[in-house]
Amino acid sequence: MELFIQRVFDGLQAGAIYAILALAIVVIFRASGLLNFAQGELAMFTTFVAWAMLDAGLPWWAATILSTVVGFIIGAVLYRLLIVRLGGPAGNPLAIVIVTIGLFLILNDGAGIIWGSNPAKVPRIFGDGRVEFLGAGISVQVIGLLAVLAVLVVGFGLLFQRTKLGLALRAVTSNQESAALVGIKVVSTLMIGWGLAAAIGSIAGTFTASQNLSVDTNMMQIALIYAFAAATLGGFDSPLGAVVGGLIIGLVSELVVGYVDIIGPDLRLLPGFVLVLVVLLVRPQGIFGSAQVARA
Amino acid sequence: MTTGTRQNIRGSGRTRRTGWRIGAVLLAVGLVAAACGGRDESGGGGGDEGSSTTAPEAVNVADPAECTNYVGTTGADGATIKIGNSLPQSGTFKVFDKVRVGINAYFQFANAGGGVQNKQLELVSLDDAYLPERTRANAETLTQSDGVFALLGLVGTENNKAVQQYFAETGQCVPNLAVATGFPGFGAPDKDPWIINGLPNYGLESVAFADYLEKNKPQAKVAILSQNDSFGESYVTAFKQAIEGSGVTVVAEETFDPRAESNAQGQVTTLAGSQADALLLGVTSIPCPTALKSIQDSGWKPLTYVTLTCSSKVLMDLAGPAAEGTISTRATYDPSDPINQSQASVQEFRTEGAKYGLAPEDLDDLNVATGWNFGAYLVQLLKASPELERSKVMNTAWSQSGVTFGMNLDGIQWTTNGAEDPFGYEQLQFVTRTGGKWVPEGEIIDYGSQLAEQGGN
Fold first, then answer.
1. Do B136 and B170 meet the contact criterion of CB atoms below 8 Å apart?
2. Distinct helix (H) and strand (E) counts, chain A
3. Mean of the per-residue pLDDT values for chain A?
4. β-pairing, A214-215 with A120-121?
5. Dihedrals φ, ψ of A211, to 5°?
6. Are B19 and B10 in contact (CB under 8 A)?
7. CATH number corresponding to B44-200+339-425
8. How much is the pTM?
């Protein structure tokens, strides 16, 4: 039983990171109908920013908050200066996807040039403590991570459903032209969308670094693959789906590898992706995604 | 996903980055390298490195008759001795470029002291970005266009395999000396006498840990966590061989895939369930300190052996208190460790290195130290060889006895004897992590030729 509880928390720990990063992917997708392949590297980059502030003597919580703000600014500026000039998501979608891949490389090498390729030490945000839960030892870090995830889910739910900004974001996603006609500033709204995504991503980056004890230029790449799977599983246009998808993939990977002997760690990627495949065969739009309906 | 698919992915550009942790292994290698340095016991400066009781031609494993394109003195018949090198000077694994910096500094130091047989050493180093196919192309350029005499300090197991294959296909016999990997497969002079390891064989550490357990915990129940690549397998294979017939048993085993996982949390949970009383941690780079942290979280307290590559300052600093009480081994002095500053070889590295172009940060860099040691190895080898001829150099390399060079620990004697004893490093010093430092424990232990059977594995 202890082992089971321990594995559940291991799964949730991994899954929560996928969930947060998937949330960032989904926010961009909702705002502009695109996948941002540089999402993970943006998160890595802002985590380095957080580390630099930490190194300069700021307390960890302040560095985290400030780097989230920096993430927001980078995301918004990228959208305004790059994506809009390339014709915007609607005008030139494929080119922009390729540009995000280019950004991936630029950010990865750029961070290496600025901060070096040796890992930089990062403490655990919530400390080294652990609590006993049904006989298993759960680290405070995991509990803190899950709490942050919960806050993000509730916060984004409220933002999208209960605020004018959320309404504007949804309107722009649904139909840019109509949104513009009713007075929504499309470019500004999308800028905010991209900024929010990068800000959320930076939280995923911070927690990954905290788990790895360090920030290094390649730390988000494995998480990004899982995050895409999580978004696919939950539905690309559903924030709740992204979070549930991330947690499910984390749990399934951990439990199947732990309990099914023939699927050892060598096949760790398998269970999650088989699940994604099965779900997509039954529900192509993902668990929480909305189906594409075309007029006959 | 099948293994085959994963390898395909690994070959693609994108996941080359995703799977940088493979490179981490390599990095680790580099760090090891760093850890294993050479030292000058003779005390002679100016490149007069190494005291040796070498008996040249004691073995005759490198036979020019087996090479269809053999030229014995290319690169060494003029006023200089040209030495080739290939390593990542760009990209994710750029940290290893520091090995080149170290070799270069040593060459200048040696040249100032008269070089080798009054010939100056010249290094030609090319960038391979850690891509084996580029290392292969570099080997071609170095031998065909630049006309180097030998290769030195090439980084990476797969990269060196690619060079080995290129030489085999073209029938060239060019010494590939002190390769920057501890892969046991290169210790097989009966199969390929033209390549020799420059780092301690990974299996040596397993032999040492097994020996340690047999002496200190004869009934130890051991858990193993290893990377599922040639690095991890080298440790596991050697460890299992070494405990055969003893009371030490392996009770739980997990592998870790550095390409698909960023930490080994799940594996630690499973292994902790076994309640084994010792752990062989055959992983490196960041997953190593994070595994130590997970072990601490779990409340499990096994006697843990961390690989030499993981025992580097950078990674141990990440682990912090979670590394307390772990054990590891050493073959060389780490010049950044305050404990070693009084060693003559370390002082020589710091003063002479600084004189010949090393920046202050280079003097604390393990990869630079590794390059320095490779340089020292090469110079003593060329001096010990009866003449500057490729097969003679190689046969000398396979028959050295009790050689000291670079920043090797006092008491470490580099010894080889053909296929019977193919690994130069055969002694290690145990160290225990105490108060945030590695403290030596007991004497340097000699594992002799127990390692020969690992050659070529």
1. no
2. 12, 4
3. 88
4. antiparallel
5. -70, -40
6. yes
7. 3.40.50.2300
8. 0.81
Closest CA to B234 of B32, B37, B41: B32
pLDDT at B21 over 50: no
- Is residue A86 domain-resident? yes
If DSSP codes are grouped into helix, strand and coil, which group holds residue B37? Answer: coil
Q: Give the class (CATH, top level) of B203-330.
A: alpha beta
Element (H, E) at B443: strand B437-446
Residue A283 buriedness (CB in 10 A; 0-12 / 13-18 / 19+): middle
- For A252, the closest chain B residue by CA position comes to B266
**The B221-227 sheet, strands edge to edge:** B249-256, B221-227, B278-282, B303-306, B327-330, B427-434, B437-446
The token pair at B263 is 């930490």
Which residues are bridge partners to B214 per DSSP? none
Q: Which residues pair with B441 in a beta bridge?
A: B430
d(CA A124, CA A18): 18
Question: How does pLDDT run across A230-276, given as a tens digit for each residue?
Answer: 999 998 888 889 999 999 999 998 899 888 877 776 777 788 888 88
CB contact under 8 A, A218 and B20: yes
Measured in angstroms, the CA of A35 and the nearest CA of chain B are apart by: 16
- Contact call for B298 and A6, based on CB within 8 A: yes
Chosen for mutation from B5, B8, B256, B269 (greatest number of chain A CBs closer than 10 Å) is B269
Give per-residue pLDDT as tens, B78-133: 999 999 999 988 766 777 888 999 999 999 999 999 999 999 999 999 999 888 99
Q: Where, residue-wise, is CATH 3.40.50.2300 in chain B? A: 44-200+339-425, 203-330
Contacts of A141 by beta carbon, 8 Å cutoff, 6+ apart? A13, A124, A125, A126, A127, A128, A210, A211
Q: Is B25 left (phi over 0), alpha (psi -120 to 50) or beta?
A: alpha
Nearest CA in chain A to B225: A265
Task: Identify all chain B residues contacting A267, using CB atoms and an 8 Å cutoff.
Answer: 1
Bridge partners, residue B255, by sequence: B226
Residue A136 lies in a domain: yes
DSSP string, B61-100: ---GGG-TT--SSTTTSSSEEEEEEEE-SSSTTGGGHHHH
pLDDT of residue B6: 32
Whether residue A209 is contained in a domain is answered as yes
Residue A216 within a domain: yes
Among candidates A10, A119, A267 on the partner chain, residue whose Cβ is nearest the Cβ of B318: A119
Q: Which range marks the domain in which residue A45 is found?
A: 21-220
Contact B250, B206 (CB under 8 A): no
Q: Contact A269/B314, CB-based, under 8 Å?
A: no
ipTM of the predicted structure?
A: 0.86
Joined together, the tokens standing for residue A205 give: 């980056």
Average pLDDT over residues A212-223: 88
Both structure tokens of A155: 């916060």
What length does chain B have?
457
Which amino acid, one-letter code, is at A37?
Answer: F
- Distance between CA atoms of B316 and B306, rounded to whole angstroms? 10
Whether residues B18 and A222 touch (CB distance < 8 A) is answered with: yes
Cα Dmax for chain A: 62
The nearest CA of chain A is from the CA of B180 a distance in Å of 19
Q: What is the spatial distance between Cα A119 and Cα B285, in angstroms, rounded to a whole number?
A: 9
Strand locations in B218-314 (E): 221-227, 249-256, 278-282, 303-306
d(CA A187, CA A194): 11
Q: Which amino acid is at A242?
A: A
The residue to which tokens 């020969």 are assigned = B452
How remote is the C-alpha of A125 from its chain's centroid? 18
Q: Which residues on chain B are in Cβ contact (under 8 Å) with A10? A: 265-266, 269
B171-184: b (≥16 Cβ within 10 Å) or e: ebbbbbbbbbbbbb
Question: Per the structure, how many domains does chain A have?
Answer: 1
Structure-block tokens of residue A292? 């594409």
